[in-house]
Amino acid sequence: xxxxxxxxxxxxxxxxxxxxxxxxxxxxxxxxxxxxxxxxxxxxxxxxxxxxxxxxxxxxxxxxxxxxxxxxxxxxxxxxxxxxxxxxxxxxxxxxxxxxxxxxxxxxxxxxxxxxxxxxxxxxxxxxxxxxxxxxxxxxxxxxxxxxxxxxxxxxxxxxxxxxxxxxxxxxxxxxxxxxxxxxxxxxxxxxxxxxxxxxxxxxxxxxxxxxxxxxxxxxxxxxxxxxxxxxxxxxxxxxxxxxxxxxxxxxxxxxxxxxxxxxxxxxxxxxxxxxxxxxxxxxxxxxxxxx
Length: 292
Ligand SMILES: NC(=O)c1ccc[n+]([C@@H]2O[C@H](COP(=O)([O-])OP(=O)(O)OC[C@H]3O[C@@H](n4cnc5c(N)ncnc54)[C@H](OP(=O)(O)O)[C@@H]3O)[C@@H](O)[C@H]2O)c1
Description:
Layout: E1 21-25, H1 30-41, E2 45-50, H2 53-67, E3 72-76, H3 82-94, E4 101-104, H4 121-143, E5 147-152, H5 178-199, E6 204-210, H6 226-232, H7 237-249, E7 259-262, E8 265-266, H8 275-289
Parallel strand pairs: 1-2, 1-4, 2-3, 4-5, 5-6, 6-7
Antiparallel strand pairs: 7-8
Helix pairs in contact: 1-2, 1-7, 3-4, 4-5, 5-8
């Protein structure tokens, strides 16, 4: 038998999660589940947000039994439907808990279609859903400060040359589906940087990161026999959770905000990730989601 889940997700594993509350999106599988399990193993109170009740409840039970921590709860969250995102935030807030760490981890790649409110699916799930979730929880994060917002981006964001805002209202047209993914991951970096500017001095700090190339379900659309060959060379999900944990808990980055990380170290983001583009994305996201 191998290590119990989350046990190998070490760098950043400082025990700083003990007694603190975290919400991890897409925590039923992959990097998110490993992150949630490692936080629970450190004694954190962990909310497992998932779009599937069946998978979410299975993850809640699995993390409880593998970590011995009973303070793990499933929360329904479909990031492709902003009504579900708002309901998830309301559900969390109704519990009256503080929130010390929001890990915006869920993501889709090579996905085609539109969200319920008519946004390109990868932009809608990877960025816009997390934008609404974070803003709905920001008051609680601020009241719980010091608190952190960790957004799992990707090094794919370096390949995006900018944002065609009109294209975000129609399904991805590229052959591979990777263009829309890169743009959505650039949006993650821009969102985190702009959030840092807006929360400066509040005790809320923000982090965007590349988890590495990780053998998770995200490669489910790659056909056999290419997939098993690819997966063999990748990081495990526990290794992939290390930078998320570092950003969520390490005292080393407690004073930092708005930066991009890779391999538990700061890395310069794409040159396209300017404050002007970040402000423009924030403004459009606010208008599109009718945020005050
Ligand atoms: N794996 C890599 O090599 C890699 C590299 C760079 C960046 N990343 C990023 O790392 C993050 C985690 O990915 P992963 O590799 O762990 O992938 P994964 O195993 O496919 O997990 C993705 C998670 O997101 C959830 N999700 C998808 N659509 C959702 C929606 N509409 N609402 C709520 N949750 C939704 C999935 O739920 P279901 O189980 O129901 O599908 C799953 O829990 C993503 O943001 C990804 O872009 C991964």
